[in-house]
Amino acid sequence: MNTDGAEWSNTDLQQDVSEADWVNDSLQVVANTTVGSLVPTVFDAYARIPYPARNGTPHRTTPAKPVAALHVQLTSIIEVLARSTNTPDDCFFAIWEGNTALDDMRVMAPTAVIAGYNYFLLRGPIERATDTLGGLSPNLWWPADHAWCMVQHFDFPAAYFGGTTDAVADLVTLTDIESRQVRVDQIITAAYDETD
User: Lower CB count within 10 Å: N or C terminus of the chain?
Assistant: First the structure.
């Protein structure tokens, strides 16, 4: 399992980004940001996974309990998600093109539009979810069979996941991460209590 944060190469950039269309087409456009405006609304269940706190300080919305470092969390998450798809060796990874670290790549590959943002698309086995492009981690990833979708949006202190009821149950029972089941229509902006 790769947790070293290896780098994608420029040749890994996908020239056909149509695979991302199903994600964008399955999002729910609403006035407030909900789980379903980030994660496709086609799944049976959803989960919220807060990012680990930095410098030992918990996020405001994260319980003050020790959790594993991000690379340890990703290892556990990847193991669950690999079991929850028929195509663990064929996954897609979308990285937001708006970061200046990727300026040179804009002439190398087209971008996919997902929820109004442009993303570079990469393809590989699920273990590559820990790899980076220009030092940046994937913002969205999903398998070719569309069995689930993980969203690590840059505007929120948590990742959101959609998949089968069993996949969400397996994520929620992991002991080294803080996660919980959420509703697809749950509002996730900071002004709202995410426990509703």
Answer: C
pLDDT at 77: 93
**Nearest CA to 168 among 78, 112, 84?**
84
The residue type found at 25 is: D
Residue 70: closest CA among 121, 124, 134, 129: 129
Give the whole-angstrom CA distance, residue 175 versus residue 95.
28
Instruction: Return the number of other C-beta atoms located less than 10 Å from residue 137's C-beta.
Output: 17
pTM of the full structure = 0.88
- Torsion 4-16-162-82 (CA) sign: negative
Farthest CA pair distance, the chain: 44
Mean pLDDT of 33-51: 94
Q: Is 116 left (phi over 0), alpha (psi -120 to 50) or beta?
A: left
157: left (phi over 0), alpha (psi -120 to 50) or beta: alpha
